[in-house]
């Protein structure tokens, strides 16, 4: 039995989040807890979360105004909203959070939204929610295939949608397995499919074996041997490369579009997008990747039209990063000066 407790105040995490290679400046959590059937791969924790039918969840307010007030106080940049839950039709907390974020002019990464949350019918329908921010819909992969229904729902709305897919050697990293997932994603209207490297700790490995055991007990035994007795993490870069090639063949990108928010200049949006893209490309060098993300945060928070400053020849005077990071930002703004 799932028990829902209504909260009058929005649940907010003001810390920065990284999801699917993108940076979110903060998170709105319409539901605190996780419930449902099947095993969902959490794209934030990078591990499977067993979803139970006997959970206790906190449902946030269904008043968009409460979420709007919360969103206006958060740091600049796109927000992460979600995940949703099976009882969204009853509680309406995720839709209220989305409406509130858009009214505050914020762009949003919307995670695992069920039916009735995303507006359909294009920009005009989205505008009826009361804001000018963009939405990007993200769908977590599940071992039981229930992600396909969520993706169909998301893709029927006005936002670009796609799949967040974990790569486990001996299971999901096999080309035949992820090719089938890419076919299903493309058929359901996905615009992108993001390969994710799972966490490599004992609990994450155990949770992956448990997730597979629910759909393929024999395969779970083989996966146990692979994850616990081989250096499987070293196989992931090659699997990612094949995944990227196959995604491209189906017209899918491997990075979700970055949602623009109300009032963000085109130059700033391009610079932040470029910095986040390079951060993902350089993630093998964690300190450098972190500096790229810090530069993207600076762009989001600067509050000035950087393209105009660049045209005046003053960008390097105010941008607090040098070397290749500054070069990447300037390339997005229109070349070096």
Radius of gyration: 20 Å
Overall structural class, as computed from helix and strand content, comes to alpha/beta
* Tally of DSSP β-strands: 14
Q: Quote the beta fraction.
A: 15-25%
Main-sheet strand order equals 2-5-10-11-12-13-14
Head-to-tail CA distance between termini: 62 Å
Structure description:
With 337 residues, the chain is an alpha/beta fold. Helix content is 43%, strand content 16%. It contains 14 helices and 14 strands. The strands form four sheets. It has a seven-stranded mixed β-sheet. The protein has a three-stranded mixed β-sheet with strand order 1-9-6, with no helix packed on it.
How do the helices and strands line up, and which of them pair or pack?
Elements: E1 3-6, E2 11-13, E3 17-19, E4 22-24, E5 26-29, E6 31-32, E7 39-42, E8 47-50, E9 56-59, H1 64-72, E10 79-81, H2 88-91, H3 93-103, E11 108-111, H4 123-127, E12 135-140, H5 147-155, E13 161-166, H6 175-187, E14 192-196, H7 202-213, H8 217-229, H9 236-249, H10 266-281, H11 286-302, H12 306-311, H13 315-318, H14 323-333
Parallel strand pairs: 1-9, 5-10, 10-11, 11-12, 12-13, 13-14
Antiparallel strand pairs: 2-5, 3-4, 6-9, 7-8
Please supply descriptive tags for the structure shown above.
337 residues, alpha/beta, 3-stranded mixed beta sheet, 14 helices, 14 strands, 43% helix, globular
């Amino acid at each position: 039995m799932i028990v829902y407790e209504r909260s009058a105040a929005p649940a907010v995490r003001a810390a920065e989040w990284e999801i699917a290679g993108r940076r979110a400046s903060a998170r709105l959590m319409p539901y605190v807890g996780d419930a449902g059937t099947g095993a969902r791969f959490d794209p934030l924790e990078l591990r499977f979360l067993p979803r139970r039918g006997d959970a206790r969840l906190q449902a946030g307010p269904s008043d968009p105004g409460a979420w709007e007030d919360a969103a206006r106080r958060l740091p600049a940049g796109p927000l992460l909203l979600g995940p949703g839950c099976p009882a969204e039709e009853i509680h309406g907390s995720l839709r209220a959070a989305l409406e509130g974020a858009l009214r505050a002019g914020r762009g949003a990464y919307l995670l695992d939204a069920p039916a009735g949350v995303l507006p359909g019918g294009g920009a005009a329908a989205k505008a009826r929610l009361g804001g000018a921010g963009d939405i990007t819909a993200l769908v977590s992969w599940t071992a039981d295939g229930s992600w396909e229904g969520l993706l169909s729902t998301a893709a029927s709305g006005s936002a670009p949608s796609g799949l967040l897919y974990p790569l486990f050697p001996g299971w999901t990293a096999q080309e035949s397995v992820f090719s089938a997932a890419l076919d299903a994603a493309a058929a359901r209207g996905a615009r992108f499919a993001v390969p994710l490297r799972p966490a490599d700790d004992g609990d994450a490995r155990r949770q992956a074996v448990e997730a597979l055991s629910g759909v393929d007990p024999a395969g779970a035994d083989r996966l146990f041997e692979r994850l616990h007795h081989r250096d499987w993490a070293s196989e992931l870069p090659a699997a990612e490369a094949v995944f990227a090639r196959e995604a491209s063949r189906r017209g899918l990108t491997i990075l979700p579009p970055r949602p623009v928010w109300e009032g963000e200049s085109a130059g700033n949006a391009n610079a932040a997008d470029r910095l986040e893209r390079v951060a993902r490309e350089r993630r093998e060098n964690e300190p450098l990747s972190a500096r790229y993300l810090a530069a993207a945060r600076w762009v989001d928070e600067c509050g000035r039209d950087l393209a105009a400053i660049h045209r005046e020849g003053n960008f390097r005077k105010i941008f607090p990063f040098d070397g290749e990071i500054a070069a990447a930002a300037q390339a997005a703004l229109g070349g070096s000066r």
